[in-house]
Sequence to fold (207 residues):
Amino acid sequence: MTHNIETIELEKFKNLDKQEFTAFFNSFSGAKPGYLIGTGQGEDENLAIFNSITHIGARPPLLGFIQRPTTVDRHTYQNILKYKHYSFNLITENFFEKAHQTSARYSKGQNEFKEVGLTAIHKKELRCPFVGESPLHIALELDDDIEIKSNQTRLIIGKVISISIPRTLHNNKYRLDFQELKSMSISGLSDYYKLTKVKSLNYAKPQ
Ligand SMILES: Cc1cc2nc3c(=O)[nH]c(=O)nc-3n(C[C@H](O)[C@H](O)[C@H](O)COP(=O)(O)O)c2cc1C
Fold:
């Protein structure tokens, strides 16, 4: 089956409202799992929502995310440079609206955990907070900070130090089921999706 689809040249989008344009072009990479990034300690403690988390490699385990240009105050980025540790906390159905609220421009002195009503958890020897309501915590250490020349965004790469997952999942051969975790995926900056696992397929070989 093929689709009856229409081609629109980039020129045509020139007159589109700025926010509508951004939201549209933000959405092409699809709905991706939302994470809260926890950073800083004491007065610097900070929490913010990100959905550009991407797998970089498994040996060693590396994860990346895209940071908007740092031409204005970016608390997450500043804390990562200062403390080197940070956490990814999977966003789930139970608290995604609170998670969304962390994207508001809170000032440096305001703590998003308190502002949106989420629980900060601290772990021994890790210089970053975790989200109590999240069932998947990933602790990371800054490994690389790469400027993307095309638009001055940054690819922040972290090495995984430890992960925390529900005990029941340990029995499942370390396979995360994102439907079971009630993970929320986000398209652009506003559209939240639930996940349905369809099937696990075997490693593909040429037939
Ligand atoms: C659904 C959603 C996803 C977002 N993803 C990103 C992202 O991947 N990268 C980014 O730099 N900002 C992203 N943002 C914007 C940040 O959450 C926002 O700039 C926030 O204020 C950053 O806080 P901070 O200054 O405390 O780091 C996203 C916002 C929303 C609502």
